[in-house]
Amino acid sequence: MSLEIVRTWYPKALTSIDTVNRLLDTIEKEIGLKPKQLMHADSMCCDDVNAIQYPPRALEMLGPFHLGGLNGFPFVGITGMNAFAHHVPEDGAVIIFYAPHIGITKEGTIGEIYRIGQSANSACCGAAKGALGKLIDGKIIEGNVTSLDFQMNTIEQIFLHQKERILKAENQIFEATEVMYEAIDERIAVLVKETNYPCKYVVLVGGIFINGDRDMGSFCQYKRFDCINLETGKSKNMLDKYYED
Question: Which parts of the sequence belong to the Limiting CO2-inducible protein B/C beta carbonyic anhydrase domain (predicted)?
Answer without folding.
Answer: 16-228
